[in-house]
Automatic annotation (TrEMBL):
It comes from the Bacteria. It is found in: Cell inner membrane. InterPro entries: LipA_acyltrans (IPR004960). One of its GO terms (cellular component) is plasma membrane. GO terms for molecular function: acyltransferase activity. Its main location: membrane. This is Acyltransferase. GO terms for biological process: glycolipid biosynthetic process. The keyword Lipid metabolism does not apply. The lineage of its organism: Bacteria, Pseudomonadati, Pseudomonadota, Alphaproteobacteria, Rhodobacterales. Keywords: Acyltransferase, Cell inner membrane, Cell membrane, Membrane, Transferase.
């Protein structure tokens, strides 16, 4: 049995490399620091066996025709993108000031603004794709603060930094679970907007196709949209250019029908984005584990 002091010590050891890199590079420009962390995480993805095996397993499932060299290249690029994403979330307040980097489009934006003008809330659904915080940043720039649902991290150091970064992007922040769900419902009923990442495995979810394979997917977003008559808008912040600019696209709201059909529509939407830009999705989610 691992004692609490040993557990905390191990958490600290795991956090030191990231803390060191963030501290040593803090005098450099935002883009330079972001790119440096991206290269570091890309290196981890290249050489760390556990991450490499998990990545290869998932990519082979979706892209069985991909060659080994193509997978290696994709793994490094995904690591680079995720390193940049992590840096931007940790420095979310500064990230939100870089409005010239966000190129916003799509009919879903009008739907969200119309709902707000009518005193109603809205639900934004996305995934661990590109830089999802760019979606909240682009709305905050328009005077719409967007709350978020997040999953607590087991490492207390990562948890502290991650939560602070997400809170800088907009409030309220709601942890997954019963208490967070109650806060989420109150926020939506009061006319608030919330962003939910729907691409994580949900033990009590419905078994729906995602990237061509059954995956346990939460129906909560669609159920709330139906219950409170709210728009459910898929939105994505896709990296473009050198990776420091973002095409923030708000798709048309998903038509209200039933929760499974609406959630499947989102799965299809995200799948299309991933197939077009596979390096921008986080392949280490164990999305199909146990199904």
């Amino acid at each position: 049995m691992i004692t609490r002091p040993v557990k905390y010590a191990w958490q600290h050891v795991r956090y030191v490399p990231l803390w060191s890199m963030l501290t040593l590079s803090r005098r450099r420009s935002f883009e330079t620091r972001s790119a440096a962390l991206g290269r570091a995480v890309g290196g981890v993805m290249r050489w760390f066996p556990i991450a490499r095996r998990r990545f290869n397993r998932e990519v082979k499932r979706v892209f069985p025709e991909m060659t080994r060299d193509e997978r290696n290249s994709l793994r490094r690029q995904m690591g680079k993108n995720m390193g940049q994403t992590l840096f931007e979330i940790y420095h979310n307040a500064e990230f939100h000031t870089r409005l010239n980097r966000f190129h916003v489009s799509g009919p879903g934006l009008d739907a969200i603004e119309a709902a707000q003008a009518a005193g109603k809330g809205a639900i934004i659904v996305s995934g661990h794709f590109g830089q999802w915080e760019a979606v909240r940043a682009s709305l905050k720039a328009r005077g719409i603060e967007v709350g978020a649902v997040y999953r607590r991290q087991s490492n207390r150091h990562y948890q502290r930094r991650l939560l602070a970064g997400i809170e800088a992007g907009g409030l309220p922040i709601m942890e997954t679970g019963r208490v967070g769900t109650k806060t989420l419902v109150r926020h939506l009923r009061a006319g608030g907007v919330v962003a939910i990442l729907l691409d994580e495995k949900h033990p009590d979810g419905a078994k729906l196709p995602f990237l061509g394979h059954p995956a346990l997917t939460s129906l909560a977003a669609a159920q709330l949209a139906l219950k409170y008559d709210l728009p459910m808008v898929p939105a994505y912040g896709t990296r473009i250019g050198d990776g420091s600019d973002f095409e923030v696209n708000y798709e048309a709201p998903i038509a209200h029908s039933d929760a499974e059909t609406m959630t499947q529509t989102f799965n299809d939407s995200l799948s299309e984005r991933i197939r077009a830009h596979p390096d921008q999705w986080y392949w280490l989610l164990n999305r199909w584990k146990g199904v």
